[in-house]
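Technical annex, item 7. During the second reporting period the consortium partners agreed on a shared format for inverse folding records so that results from different sites could be compared directly. Each record opens with the tokenized structure and is followed by the designed sequence. A conforming record, contributed by the partner at site C, is shown below for reference.
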């Protein structure tokens, strides 16, 4: 699915590693701390196609953290948790207002758990696994909302490049939904498998061809949304808000 960016993947890996290293550093008080705080905020734009190639990275970090905890290697486990938290922060930087809250909560939770693990204060591995499930659900909701907002205007359905990006978000939402159920100890049932099949088929067609019937796009996004709402009990609004300043026009989800 990602053949079109495979030749750039090693560059992307280096960039992502550098960014994650920056975001996962723990602050330490120093004599020049006040001067440091006055420095301008670092802002880095990461191509969404590059981020799409690393959609499984949080789960890989979660698996590594759990394994290190079971081995008693607490410092290494904490570092994996901080790296995962940094990936969520990368997504948080491009999240819409209605998906920021869940992402921010997961970022904070992973940081707290990293400290607890490092200080040997973690009670059970199940505490980690439930946090991992919440993080994946937060990411799934974020990508679901992004995909809906991208194609909320009927005119967007004729823009192949934009619809390809919609495909990346739908695919990411489906992947994080699947990972969330895994960490939550939920065995995928027929309904989940149908949702994943519908979402990933539409995503693949959008990524490869840039066009899918409007009804298929809507069905894919709504199916993931509905499943997430059942799992989390949290309302996920797909249509942009109607305000006097709303310039997005009519929404295919409204």
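Designed sequence (site C submission):
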């Amino acid at each position: 699915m990602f053949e079109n960016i495979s030749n750039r993947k090693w560059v992307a890996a280096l960039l992502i590693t550098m960014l994650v290293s920056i975001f996962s550093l723990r602050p330490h008080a120093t004599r020049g701390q006040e001067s440091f705080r006055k420095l301008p905020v670092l802002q880095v734009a990461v191509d969404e196609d590059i981020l799409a190639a690393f959609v499984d990275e949080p789960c890989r970090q979660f698996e590594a953290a759990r394994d290190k905890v079971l081995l008693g290697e607490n410092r290494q486990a904490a570092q994996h948790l901080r790296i995962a938290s940094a990936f969520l922060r990368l997504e948080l930087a491009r999240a819409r207002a209605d998906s920021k809250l869940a992402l921010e909560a997961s970022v904070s939770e992973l940081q707290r758990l990293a400290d607890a693990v490092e200080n040997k204060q973690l009670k059970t591995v199940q505490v980690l696994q439930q946090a991992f499930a919440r993080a994946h659900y937060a990411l799934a909701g974020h990508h679901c909302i992004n995909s809906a907002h991208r194609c909320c205007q009927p005119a967007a359905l004729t823009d192949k490049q934009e619809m390809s990006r919609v495909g990346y978000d739908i695919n990411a939402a489906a992947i994080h939904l699947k990972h969330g159920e895994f960490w939550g100890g939920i065995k995928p049932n027929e309904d989940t498998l149908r949702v994943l099949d519908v979402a990933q088929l539409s995503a693949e067609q959008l990524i490869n061809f840039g066009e899918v019937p409007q009804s298929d796009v809507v069905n894919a996004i709504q199916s993931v949304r509905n499943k997430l709402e059942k799992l989390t009990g949290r309302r996920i609004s797909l249509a942009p808000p109607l305000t006097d300043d709303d310039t997005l026009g009519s929404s295919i989800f409204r």
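The radius of gyration is 19 Å. Confidence is low (pLDDT under 50) at residues 1-8, 27-43. All partners now use this format for quarterly exchanges.
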